[in-house]
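Protein modeling request. Please complete all fields; requests missing the sequence field cannot be processed.
Requester role: graduate student
Desired output: 3D structure, token encoding
Chains: 1
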Amino acid sequence: MGCTGSKRKVRKAYADRLKEESAEREYAEAMNRMWSRPITDERLASVAKDAARLVCRTQVHCGTTLSAREAEETTEPALFRVVLAISRAFGEGELTAVQSAVDIVKASKLKNGSPDMALVAADLITRCGGEASPTMRVLKCLHQKYILEAFCALQLGGPLTGLHTKDISGPEGWQVSVDQMNDVIRVRHVREEQITATLGPGPSGASSVAGPRLRWELILEFTPQMDEMLRSRCDITALAYPDDDTFQPSTAIAKLHEQIAANGRIPVFTGDIARSVLVGELSG
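Delivered output (284 residues):
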């Protein structure tokens, strides 16, 4: 009897782990599918719009360092400074091509005051060759669709199941970094959000109060020339209680806090891409 019960527990644990691994693979493959879709005419506006608004939150470490503040605090649009900094990861030929495209776009789009930077980004992406340019393949990682997919992993059966969060305004709410490492290009999204706690009904009904600040990150890693996505992972990396002696964490929040204190992070999903998908192979 005891042996049979132990075997059942082992089988259940194994089945649960297979289920977890399957979910992790699904999220990793979803990231790969989104990135592998080429920048077609239909997708150009969406890629350009998100890239144009996220470049001012992006720091680049590709040979030289460009901080998000440096990208923003200049008379030259952050878009140009960021793409030029990224292009250095791919050699002189790519840097020259991107610089030439930037010069043309500057001359044609910036002569009439303050242009729509989403339209400027679309023109720049096209002039750089779109999907043919490794720099542009990095640029399409600056998009909210990756964050939305990761947020589903956090809240649909993940560590934040049953909890509600709200965005934190300001630059600390969403930061992006692009890093050239020994054998990978890494794009890292870091999000800070605030967990809201709902109080019971009072004179004016239920209300929400500020809860802990949560930090989580999504990492996408690629081959050195951005030909393939290698892996992706998502982790919760910090949870800070509010500076309020009256704050009483719920059981779920206290558990998250304990896990981070013990392990430094809470894995949400991680997965190597099982099947290489070359740029442009997926069509839609």
